[in-house]
Amino acid sequence: MSRYSRGFTLVELILVLLLVSALAVLGIGLFSNTSSYASLALYDQIISQSRLAQQVALGRHASTTTRLSISSVDDKYILAVSNGVNPGVYQTVRELPREGVQITWKDSGTTGCGGGSGADFAVHFDPSGDLISPNGLRRPTLICLSGEPQRSVCLSTLGFAHEGPCDQ
């Protein structure tokens, strides 16, 4: 029998177990806070649906506007894009969990999120893809998500959706 046997020593196995358990304890904190994930998912969907609504408005050259509505029902947010007088002409709906995230909006004259309305709202895109705010004005609309971390989406007057505040 040789002097050196193959395999791991008990000390090596214990060190590996300690290292794996330490990584597991540190990693579990990344997945325990779902509100940050919900905030990010909602944020991404607002930008995505806004861009979709503008593309539908540009692509259909309809005489009517394309509508992006954001509403809160029970424990979820509903983001809907529709085109035409009859919503059945073109419609797509996304449902996302609220999980502690609040959405506010305002016609943007400032870059801050304070003082916005928490009510359900809809923005419209005219056939040239330009934005019409929830108040019927041709001004940028700032959409704020209060969660961890707080995020904001700006819908510019040209209809482009981008992250961050609306710069005037």
UniProtKB/TrEMBL annotation:
Cross-referenced InterPro entries: N_methyl_site, Pilin-like
Pfam families reported for this sequence: N_methyl (PF07963)
Superkingdom of the organism of origin: Bacteria
PROSITE patterns: PROKAR_NTER_METHYL
NCBIfam families recorded: IV_pilin_GFxxxE
Name the record gives this protein: Prepilin-type N-terminal cleavage/methylation domain-containing protein
Organism whose genome encodes this protein: Allohahella marinimesophila
